[in-house]
Description:
CATH topology of the largest domain: Fumarate Reductase Iron-sulfur Protein, Chain B, domain 2
Radius of gyration: 22 Å
Order of helices and strands: EEHEEEEEHHHHHH
Number of domains: 2
CATH superfamily of the largest domain: Alpha-helical ferredoxin
Helix content: 25-40%
Amino acid sequence: MSTQRTVLLKVFRFGPDDAAPRYDQFRVPAGPRTTVLDALLAVRRLKDPSLTVRHSCLHGSCGTCGMRVNGREVLACVTRIEELGDPVVVEPLAGAAVAGDLVVDMEHVYRRLEPVGRPLVRASERAGKKDGTADAGPVLEDLERFEDCIECGLCLSACPVAGDPRFLGPAALAAAERVLEEPRGADPRAVLGLVDDAHGAWRCHTAFECSAVCPAGVDPGEAIMRLRGRLLRDRLPRLVGRYHREVRP
């Protein structure tokens, strides 16, 4: 008779009353469909109910279970244990204050997003029939979500320069690029002024770690590159005009 597979979790622990962080080890059951979140909830249920972990939707839509697993930013609810080996090291997101164990204070994410004026979440206007009749609108294959960011904070944790508190960060810069594409009542000039800064689009080191870990396909690294292109196109006429004024006899 086969025995049930188990996995060893090494879990970061730190709370308000702790003098220093530590790692606790728990061996829990792990089947082929067991996720990291399943394993952590098994720890709470079977081993230590004091473990602090945040979750909500259980299917990768809300972003609340973001954490670092084996050194990489993931959503715990859609990350399968069987793909990770043994042991599995589970830590909170980097660059944020730890509220308790695997839960971080997300204020640093929202503080960066607010100045940009986060765009409304919307999708293509309407779905048409697949036969492509004249008044049907786009077919399902052509539909596109315009804002996919779930504000999970994974990109900030992975970004090598997000430790600079003045840096807007990849999520906010991607949101700014969307505002410029479709202002919907926002002031594009104000947004351009915000991102055209040493701690805005120009602070990015183009590591694209943000795009690599984004669970929603936002590709903030590419959005930042588009922002830079927009800023350069905006600057060029002004630079050319100033050059002509300065060299005019």
